[in-house]
Specification:
The protein is an alpha/beta fold. The chain has a domain at 109-259: Uracil-DNA Glycosylase, subunit E. Helix content is 27%, strand content 12%. The protein is rod-shaped.
Length: 265
C-alpha cells in the first residue's frame, strides 16, 4: 500500500495522529521536530544532590558492629549422664463429650376433646373417634352419670399427632407434650373448666413427657401450668376389658367430685 493511500484511509477514519507499532516498509521518513528541545541546565539542587551521592560513594560510613560474647557450651563429663531439660506444659485436656441419644419419635395418635359441664374430657381413641352407637360412647355416658356430670358430652375439638407429616421436624415426646399443652390452652381459654379428665396412655403427655405409662399417673390429680387440674385414668377400651379397673375408677370419681359443679340439663 502506498503511503498516500494509507494516509487517505487514516483521514477517512478520523485518525489525525498515529504511531506505527513496527517499522513499515517503504514508509516515508519522519520529519524532524520544528521546535528544538531546550538543553538541560544544572540547577543548584541537582548539583548539591550529586555532590552528596559522590561523597557517600567515596567515603562510606562504616557502622560499628556490636561485639558478640562467646557463651561457653557445657561439655558433659565422662561417666555422667546428660540431663534432659523437662518442659512443663499447661495444655488443658478437654473433657470427653458424651454422645446424646437421638430423640425417639412418638408414634401417631388421635384424641378428642369433649365438654361435660365444667369438666373437660381428653379421650384417646381411634379415628374417626367415638360414635354415638359404640360401646365406648355408652361407657363414657355411664362414667358421666356416676360423676354427676351432664350427659351426653359435647364434642368440642380433636388433636392429631404428629402435627405435620414432615419427618424432619421434631416428633419427640417433649415436642408432643408442648403441642398438646398448647392445644388445650387455646381450646379451654374461653371455657369455664374446673378439671380435665384424661383417658388413654398418650394423655400423660399433657402433664409429663417422661412418664412411662398411664399407670404412673393413674388415680392422681396433677397440676398443670396454665391449665385446670388434670386426672388420669386408663382408656375407655381398657376400662371395658378390665372390670377391676372400672371399679377403681368409681371410687376415684367419688373423691374428685369437688373439682366440678354438677349441672342439670
Amino acid at each position: 500500500m502506498l503511503e498516500q493511500t494509507r494516509l487517505s484511509y487514516l483521514e477517512a477514519m478520523g485518525v489525525a495522529n498515529w504511531v506505527p507499532r513496527d517499522v513499515l516498509p517503504n514508509a516515508a521518513q519522519r520529519a524532524a521536530a520544528d521546535i528544538p528541545f531546550p538543553p538541560a541546565q544544572a540547577t543548584p539542587e541537582r548539583i548539591e544532590a550529586s555532590a552528596k551521592v559522590i561523597s557517600d560513594v567515596v567515603s562510606p560510613e562504616v557502622e560499628a558492629q556490636p561485639v558478640r560474647k562467646r557463651v561457653p557450651i557445657p561439655v558433659p563429663r565422662p561417666g555422667g549422664a546428660a540431663k534432659t531439660p523437662v518442659v512443663e506444659t499447661t495444655e488443658s485436656v478437654a473433657a470427653p463429650v458424651e454422645p446424646t441419644a437421638p430423640a425417639v419419635p412418638v408414634r401417631p395418635f388421635y384424641m378428642q376433646l369433649w365438654l361435660a359441664g365444667s369438666c373437660a374430657l381428653l379421650i384417646e381413641t381411634e379415628e374417626p373417634g367415638l360414635e354415638s352407637s359404640s360401646a365406648t360412647f355408652r361407657l363414657l355416658n355411664e362414667i358421666l352419670r356416676a360423676a354427676q356430670l351432664p350427659t351426653p358430652a359435647r364434642l368440642y375439638a380433636d388433636f392429631h399427632w404428629p402435627l405435620t407429616r414432615n419427618r424432619q421436624l421434631d416428633n419427640s415426646a417433649v415436642a408432643a407434650s408442648q403441642g398438646l399443652q398448647a392445644f388445650m390452652q387455646a381450646r379451654l381459654e374461653s371455657q369455664q373448666i374446673g378439671s380435665i379428665g384424661c383417658f388413654g396412655a398418650h394423655t400423660i403427655l399433657l402433664s409429663d413427657p417422661d412418664a412411662e405409662s398411664i399407670a404412673a399417673l393413674a388415680g392422681r390429680i396433677e397440676s398443670i401450668e396454665q391449665l385446670p387440674p388434670a386426672w388420669f385414668v386408663p382408656s375407655l377400651e381398657d376400662l371395658m376389658a378390665e372390670p377391676e379397673a372400672k371399679r377403681r375408677l368409681w371410687h376415684f370419681l367419688k373423691r374428685i367430685k369437688s373439682h366440678w359443679t354438677p349441672v342439670n340439663v
